[in-house]
Amino acid sequence: MLNISHFSKTYPGGKRAVDDLSMEVHPGEIMGFIGHNGAGKTTTLRCAAGILDFTEGEITIDGHSIRREPVAAKSVTAFLPDNPDLYDFLKGIEFLNFIADLYAIPKDIRRQRIEKYGDAFELTGALGSAIGGYSHGMKQKLALISAFIREPKLLILDEPFVGLDPEAAFTMKGFLRELCDRGGAVLFSTHVLEVAEKLCDRISIIRNGKLIESGRTEDVVGNSSLEDVFLELGREASREEGAGEVQ
Amino acid sequence: MGKLWRLVCLNLRGMLNSLKMGSGKKKGAKVTGYGALLLLGFLAVYISGVYSFMFASLLNEVGLIQYLTPMMAILGCALSLVLTIQAASGFIFSGKDSDLMLSLPVSAFSVMLSRITALYIENLFFIGLFMVTSGVAAMVQGAGGVGYMVGLLICTLLLSFLTTMITTVLSFGVSWLAAHFPHHKLFSTVLYFAMFILIMVGAFQLNNVGTLLLANREAFDRVLGSWLLPFGLVMKGVSGDVGAILLLAAIAVIPFLLIVWLFSSQYKKVLSALAARSVRNDYKLGNLRASGQFQSLFRREVKRYFGTTIYFFNTGFGAVVLIVAAVYGCLVHRQVAEYVEVFSQMVGGMDVLTALAVLAIGFFSTTICTTCVSISLEGKTFWILKEAPVPSKTYFASKIAVNLLVAWPALLICALSLGVVYGVNPVTLAASVFVLLALGLLVAVYGLAINLFFPKMDAVNDTVVVKQSASALIGALGGWLILGIAVGGYFLFGKLMPVAGYMAILGGLFLVLSGAIWGWLLKGGTRKLQQLD
């Protein structure tokens, strides 16, 4: 579903945020993307979603290149940033209707989906109010609803659990699994390793812009915990970097 | 004291940061910030200089030069008030860094005081530019010397306290309305327009300033001694009346300190009250309306436009002026018919007079450029459209459509109504309407291109984008350049053909240029859009 091939991103000023990254997310799979702060997770996710431009490598979604066929790729994708800024001047329902229009969701279907996800996240009652008055958690839920109503083939989430109450987080996990059961795929970044360990089918770990580990969760974790694996990989990488500098 | 000064510098840097282009990460962006400030300052000096020297000459003729300084002080303070109120409500009472600031080991008093001090410095900058140029104009007319300028500078410092105090109180009112009323934006927009129309009406009357003052001198003196007392004291203070300066200091500084103390000591309570949210929880899903991408984007853009006071005010003011001018022109056409006849003979005929009117209408048309800031206004919500499957053509078209929605009706109403009422030749009228609509289209299209070259995606609020961004400034200058070229072309080629012919050709050129820019938008513009984040 998502194919990232030899992708690199260098920002103006020379900072190489991601270096020769290759990974795949298959249909029916939830992939967890973890790494330290500044590792390149958000850059990768934003480039995959078509928000950030890049010149090295290729990213395809359902066979469509995000650079050469952006409309086709984006029509099957939904992205949620880590701190979603929404249109304060719209009401919640107006925002959902706006998104539904952009994705050409028919009228009766969008109503059903908004009702389903709005009730599940307990936000339906507040949809008549302006987004400007929402709390951070409410905005997060609204953004999630706007993503789920599209029933995308690929869902990309950047730290989706931040700001969500435990009930909403549980609900979201259910919907992620439901999406994958329908043949879709999910790629999300998180710092909550316990959730990644329980929820994800595959894990990819990035450090300083490079992929240092990727595979099925049970293979990556083995007999220890994802936290131990992550910390150990980080130590190994630091030792290699230090040795490289000495040479 | 050290902490307070650091906070003031931080707030000033924040205000200067608003003038930078792009994301401010490049070295040149800092220079651009200072450059834009210099340009704004130059424009303020230019405008106040023109008015100051004009009034100085008029007032000197009737022996009333002493009224120059208070008049320019009133104008400077009024404009400074209009320019800073909206920004102040966002900066002092709704700043995004308030949470961080109030959690630091710095008193809320110091945080508030630092913000008001930064606001004072901004007011001082605008008022100072007006006052200093008026002082120079007065000195040129022989009205004063070094002592006059010293008194003027002291009065400028004191008046800025007064304006800052009023701005702070009014901006609190704006913030309070924003927090408690769903339709507060409508109220803000109406208030803004009312204030600006008052200033415009006053500005139109200023041409008769000498006559008006002579006829109503006693009334003006009474006003300067009562509800405009500070400006009356300025008039006396620049003449060397130390008592007047001391009284002005008392009137300006004491209330300022009281207001500062009041808001600063209650700053946390004020911010908490303003931040209280009003979200209802009783919405029931009804029937939903579905539409296409273009219609949906267009509706969203219209809602943003009419819901953002400063955006509407800054770019829609020209449309309001055109409609008001059309109505006024139609109402007084019998009274001015004789003058129109005389003037048309002076300039070489009704067609030439029509061309001059088209030039004036065209000038206001170039101020109706919603597109030159529309991409920047996406700001932090830009990700929503970047991740959506929207072709850039549809996106651009929706923004241009809003610009035309504002510009074209005003242009049509103004041109057609005045043309019919003043008996303009139908062919000339048709050419006039054609060239004006084509100009409106060109402004909309080039505005978008300008915004793609000079985006400001990281502004702290809408006011910064609309009033202080590079694309807003360049959009305005671009309009003047086009009109200048059109006038130059008329002097070169206009004599070779009828006026209607020249306007028709000009309109055709505008359409061709619009088409060329649109073609670039679809390719180069799309690439630039992709590179924005």
Structural write-up:
The complex is a heterodimer of chains A (247) and B (533). Chain A folds into two domains: 2-76 and 152-246, P-loop containing nucleotide triphosphate hydrolases (Rossmann fold, 3-Layer(aba) Sandwich); 85-151, no CATH class. Helix content of chain A is 40%, strand content 24%. Chain A is built from nine helices and ten strands. In chain A, the strands form two sheets. In chain A, strands 6-7-8-3-9-10 form a six-stranded mixed sheet, sandwiched between helices. In chain A, strands 2-1-4-5 form a four-stranded antiparallel sheet. In chain A, a hairpin with a 5-residue loop joins strand 1 and strand 2. Chain A is globular. Chain A starts with a strand and ends with a helix. The model of chain A has no long low-confidence stretch (mean pLDDT 91). Chain B has two domains: 2-12 and 64-275, no CATH class; 294-531, no CATH class. In chain B, helix 20 (426-453) runs parallel beside helix 23. The radius of gyration of chain B is 25 Å and the shape is globular. Chain B has 23 helices and no strands. At the A-B interface, helix 2, strand 6, helix 3 and helix 4 of A face helix 13 and helix 18 of B.
Give a concise summary.
Chain A is an alpha/beta fold.
Q: Looking at the structure, what is the overall shape of chain B?
A: globular
C-alpha Rg of chain B (nearest Å):
25 Å
Q: How many helical elements of chain A?
A: 9
The count of domains of chain B is: 2
Low-confidence stretches of chain B: 21-29
The amount of helix of chain B comes to: over 70%
How many E-type strands of chain A? 10
What's the main sheet of chain A like? Answer: 6 strands, mixed
Q: Biggest sheet of chain A, strands in spatial order?
A: 6-7-8-3-9-10
Quaternary structure annotation: heterodimer
Structural class of chain A: alpha/beta
Q: Which CATH C-level class of the largest domain in chain A is it? A: Alpha Beta
Number of domains of chain A: 2
Rg calc of chain A: 19 Å
Instruction: Tell me the distance between the termini of chain B.
Output: 40 Å
